[in-house]
Design goal:
By secondary structure, the protein is mostly beta strands. The protein has one helix and eight strands, in the order αββββββββ. The protein has a domain of 94 residues: Sandwich (Immunoglobulin-like), CATH 2.60.40. The two termini are 39 Å apart.
Length: 154
């Protein structure tokens, strides 16, 4: 999957560059970024994508998020997961010892491999994990490549 041919998208490349540049400055200035942290008012959920048997799976960690507040769209070869986590607590004065939970909106996009059809994608939500599955294209099936060992010439 890592070697699949993808259509070049300059906006996606600019977003990757911006994110990497922001991470560089955060590390340089000692502002370590928590996993899932994003700009103020939002966050980025952890996502994984893999092929298992004859299906492709995209999983997103969305703990504490009502699946009714999640929207999944596919435009071309880009799958986008959007939603929000609302702070349900009444506004009371609190003295936090520390706070790692981020509230607000989120959006994650994943480029799908060629051959994955949007209409075949199924979504399920269980235990705070959104799981999207689709039949994997035959091109994503693992194939063993034999290694030929050549004797060194003297």
């Amino acid at each position: 999957m890592a070697n699949s041919i993808q259509t070049w998208n300059p906006f996606r490349e600019m977003e990757h560059f911006r994110r990497d540049f922001d991470d560089l400055f955060d590390r340089f200035l000692g502002r370590g970024k928590r996993p899932g942290a994003k700009e103020a008012g939002g966050f980025e959920p952890a996502v994984e994508c893999y092929v298992e048997g004859d299906k492709m799976v995209v999983r997103a960690d969305l703990p504490g998020i009502d699946p009714k507040n999640v929207e999944i769209t596919v435009i071309g070869d880009v799958l986008t997961i959007k939603g929000s986590r609302e702070d349900r607590h009444e506004k009371k004065e609190r003295n936090f010892v520390f706070k790692e939970v981020t509230y607000g909106s989120f959006e994650r996009s994943v480029t799908l491999p060629a051959g994955v059809r949007a209409e075949d994608i199924k979504a399920a939500y269980k235990d705070g994990v959104l799981e999207l599955t689709a039949p994997a294209p035959k091109e994503l099936s693992p194939r063993k490549v034999p290694i030929q060992v050549e004797e060194g010439k003297k």
